[in-house]
What does this fold into?
Amino acid sequence: MHGYRGKILRINLSDHTFRTEPLDKEKALRYIGGRGLGSKIMSEEVDPKVGAFDPENKVIIATGPLTGTPTPAGGRYMVVTKSPLTGTIASSNSGGFWGSELKFAGYDLLILEGKSPKPVNIFIHDDEVTIRDAGHVWGKTTTETTEALVKEAPDKAKVLCIGPAGEKLSKIAAVMNDINRAAGRSGVGAVVGSKNLKAIVVKGSSKPEIAQAEKLKEVVKQSRLKLKENGVTGQGLPTYGTAVLVNIINESGVFPTNNFQTTYFDKAENISGEHLAENFLIKRESCFACPIACGRYTKADDIEGGGPEYETIWAFGAACGVDDMKSVIKANYWCNEMGMDTISAGVTIAAAMELYQRGKIKDEEIDEGLSLKWGDAASMVEWTRKMGLRDGMVADRMAEGSYRLAESFGMPEVAMAVKKQELPAYDPRGIRGQGLQYATSNRGGCHVRGYMISPEILGLPEKLDRFAIDGKAEWVKIFQDLTAYIDSTGLCLFTSFAIDVKGYADLLNAVVGTSFTDAEVLESGDRIWNLERDYNLKAGIDPSQDTLPKRLLKDPIPDGPSKGNVTRLEEMLPKYYEIRGWTEKGIPRAETLEKLGI
Amino acid sequence: MVVTVRLFATLREGRDKVIQLELDSGSTPGDVIDQLGISQKDVAILLVNGRDGQMDQVLSSQDTVSLFPPVGGG
Ligand code: SF4
It folds into this structure.
């Protein structure tokens, strides 16, 4: 097999047994790998109605056929499972070097089943697999765990682990790898924790084979050139990282502030990418085989580490009314160390601040020395740490995510979440296509299921009127489908600023030896999308959940450049259902599923 | 008339972040970038008062022009 390693490693944590299985190549090509193939296996093996923390839920760690190959930014893997946060199928993506190392060890996928009677680590060194006691690292942070486990492994082994948040089943816990890379969203880290699995340490020593090596050299050269010549991937991201978005999103008046109560943050300059680069950046960081190197490594006082990314800066910044970059860096650090999703953590604190503002959380309920006042940066950092440890009544509820927190204080509408997952850093009232995307995302509130910011704000591949309704359903569908494909190949989504559908087909074809056309690339994405939708429906996620928080539907933006707008979701949703081949109620039609071979 | 020009990312190199410009009436964002010595190809995103702008649109007094090089992320 080319691109793929042809092997799945299945580990039963209940009885500590494991076995390898051949990869079904036909199935793999229909679902590509990563998110697609992981979801397909979930649909075959895990009852959609299962509880996320039941031992019957599985965690599928899936690379793509391009992971660990010379393709640019081809180092990604996906964690696919049923989410404790949303109740949907979840797939969370991460970069770094762990995913490619798993490929080098000879595996396309790991399937983790059951529940270990006590905490364990898995060590994989090519064919050698051992399951060892994790008592000495249970309770430890990401850095402590990683540093301890590399000493027990072959040289240059890579570590994936959960932090205390995952152990304590926080519904916003992440899976971490290479210390500061995160499969962040949807609480996938908690599912790993529920299985009493702390870490997976991998070392591999062989590379995937390439079907057309000469051809691949040429295609890689072209793609690298495209990435270099593109302003975003060649200049913007390398120079400023993702944080460069702070100012453009704020200037457009769609930078949610104080938990989406307003959308223009007058102190945005203090948390901008420009400010970060000038004052806190120590070095740039890259993932496996990535020429873009958008990663940041920063330092504030005695704390240093990877990040913060744009979304993180926003969540701990404007969303909480905070304009102190040092505190943002510290909160980001605690998320990495505790193993928590930065978007969900920041937005959950913002929800708590609004609950306090509205008198739902009382002064006497707040831990001594802390506050929930907008802009209290020092408290925000401490809340983040406490949330990771479930330390105290409010922090314990925060660890459940914004929706459950707000519901427990009697005001669920304060949660800025879709399908109970916290929304990211773009107010959809001024970016209509993004609103439709949020509402229909298969894992709830999320920007990387279809990044409509690209055409609606950044003008890539072409500039759309962000307030228009017409044509948005079609754009959202194409973006969602292409993203599902990219997420399944093992490439980083950021390559899509520069590489087009044909470029993606060329990369896959040269590595795997297939002959995917542009249409087949998009069709595979459509198939994956519908498979996820079908799973969610069977899980009981009703189409009535294809919606947005009431604030975004009903309350016009109060001021700033996007003043006066609401989302107008109901005007776009019927068209979206129609072009997806779904009924007007949002259910995939039998002929749609049949056409896609689901 | 006076317009406010806000510059971001690499467009700030060698320039102030915020510049007040005195312009003839009928001036456009194209005139603004000429006056600041910025090449049109370096401007990927142009906003006038936070809304998508055009290089040849006529500006009014008190307008804010925001200029960005290619930026992205997510
Ligand atoms: S673009 Fe950034 S996130 Fe993507 S692979 Fe490269 S360094 Fe990693």
